[in-house]
Specification:
Belongs to the GSP K family. With 331 residues, this protein is an alpha/beta fold. It has eight helices and nine strands. The strands form three sheets. The chain has a five-stranded antiparallel beta sheet. Strands 3-4 form a two-stranded parallel ribbon. The protein has a two-stranded parallel ribbon with strand order 5-6.
């Protein structure tokens, strides 16, 4: 066979070999890219899990710190049984670098890792009106109903919000015996344990946010602390009150907290009756919130604490994970 006759066959063989080699290279590159991507994702997942674990530990430490502060305040209250916004627990912790706390304690911060920021607050849960007060008795006390109506009016909630809360909340907490035989078990809402779960009663998220500064839902009925409550709650708490009188009390207590609830009568209209079962100056329930920011990741923890004598018990903990938008990041 002459070279000219063999040339086309050789070209076909070389073309097939080249095509095979290109296919092999493509497969190898695809497999390598997939392996690199899986490794990258594994590293990212491990980093996120490590950040979450570290943030959880730091927030647990912050919660223990808050419990210690409240316990020390309980010791101080044995001499002067008053809780007010002038107490040490009421001072919020502004967002600060965790390395700052480590330096104070003599620890070494991770210089190579991302900066972590911690912030937190302790708030008096009895500064707000407790919706649990609506559940006592066969019927809602008329005064409690008026209080909730006035609060809803101050919060500018939709008409009928107070009636909806009372009806659905009492239905949710009705005894099992009263529920039996109604035939409408599917219409009975779940029992909410905190403000966020009021959506189970049919409230919108916007309505809940409007009520958040003024109402709470605690495990037991509680009086309102006149030393920490906002003026809207104080004005709604008593018949014959107005915002001006409540604001006068708020201004007075900034300089000198009330020593007992009856002291408020000196700054309220003469027609107002202050009873110890509805107003106090000492609190047992506190909301503790902690926020840990690591790069764009944020872990928030909200806890409800019950102070019983010198014991500070954690009744509820909620954790919220979220990712900050670029505009929300602080320099």
């Amino acid at each position: 066979m002459s070279p000219l006759q063999a040339h086309p066959a050789n070209q076909r063989q070389r073309g097939a070999a080249l095509l095979t080699a290109m296919i092999i290279v493509t497969l190898v590159a695809s497999l390598a890219a997939a392996m690199v991507w899986r490794q990258y994702r594994a590293v990212q997942i491990e980093a996120a899990e490590r950040s979450r674990s570290q943030s959880s530990l730091i927030l647990q430490g912050a919660l223990d710190w808050a419990r210690l502060i409240l316990r020390q305040d309980a010791i101080d209250n044995q001499k002067d049984p008053v809780d007010s916004l002038n107490d040490f627990w009421a001072v919020p912790v502004a967002e600060s670098r965790v390395s700052t706390f480590l330096a104070i304690e003599g620890g070494n911060a991770d210089k190579d890792g991302p900066e972590a920021f911690l912030s937190g607050t302790i708030k008096d849960a009895q500064a707000q009106y407790n919706l649990r007060n609506l559940l006592g008795g066969a019927q809602v006390p008329e005064l409690e109903q008026r209080v909730l109506e006035r609060i809803c009016q101050s919060a500018q909630t939709p008409p009928g919000t107070a009636a909806l809360i009372i009806e659905r909340l009492r239905l949710a907490y009705a005894s099992q015996n009263s529920q039996a035989g109604t035939g409408n078990a599917a219409d009975i809402p779940l029992q909410p344990r905190n403000l966020e779960q009021l959506v189970w009663l049919g409230l919108s998220q916007d309505t809940i946010e409007r009520l958040r500064p003024f109402v709470t839902l605690l495990p037991t009925p509680t009086p309102v602390n006149l030393n920490t409550a906002p003026r809207e709650v104080i004005a709604a708490l008593f018949d014959g009150m107005d915002l001006a009188s409540a604001e006068r009390l708020v201004q007075v207590r900034q300089a000198q907290p009330l020593k007992k609830a009856q002291d408020a009568k000196n700054f309220l209209p003469s027609s107002v009756t202050v009873s110890s079962d509805r107003a106090e100056v000492l609190s047992s329930y506190f909301n503790v919130s902690g926020r840990m920011r690591l790069d764009e990741r944020v872990l928030e923890e909200r806890s409800l604490l019950w102070r019983r004598n010198l014991d500070v018990l954690v009744l509820e903990r909620q954790r919220i994970n979220r990712v900050l938008e670029p505009a929300q990041k602080k320099p």
